[in-house]
Description:
The chain has 255 residues and is mainly β. It has no helices and 22 strands.
Amino acid sequence: MHIRTAAAATAGSLALLTLLAPTAQADDHNGDITFTSVTFSRTTVNVGISEPQTLTVTATAKDDSGIWGMVGLKLVSSDGRIQYGKSSTCTRPTSTTMKCAWSYSLESDRTDYADLRNSSAGTWHLDMEARGNDGDYYTLDSSATMKIKRYAKLTTTQATPEPVVKGGTLTVTGALTRADWNTNIYTGFAAQKVALQFKKSGASTYTTVKTVTTDSAGKLRTTTTANASGTWRWHFAGTGTTSPATASGDAVALK
């Protein structure tokens, strides 16, 4: 990135903008300046189609001459989409350090260029630079990362018949969908492995009975043997671009 200009961006309101960015490079630095900490309020943000999700990034930089400022302040996706901070606040805890926090609002249905796209789901990195009063600089280009994923949902589990004869066959159905950031609707998530889980009456934990693959529309359907009363549910572990999801359970008694 190598931003070393006279324009500081250490406080005040920063516009949200989505642009194409160059491919991430390795971190670069000159002199004894360093980032002593970089933290994300959430290491994974799962974004649906209507509710904005917030993220705060906090960074502290140190240089023996003092920190002149921090610039850049953007999150960059693997496909080059950029999110700038909505606002920032900076303090100087000591004469040699500066601490800044930036807030981001992540959503898919904005009316401007700052909305998300499906191709942007996955790993994002922080791209920014700290500058010392003596001209030293430290550029973060790849080392500080987090994930922004498409939010997934599982419909309420349906197990029939209810009640069921012990040793009888249960048919269990459900459906897995995820946020489509391009169209702002939830669509079926095909060809995904989803666990069918069971919790016996009186127990506190679920165990996986079998794994079922969603069809082309994201629907789930399987049969299983009912040997005890209890609750059945679906659980999806998620992927590198899509959040986990757990369905509400369906309690089935034996007769």
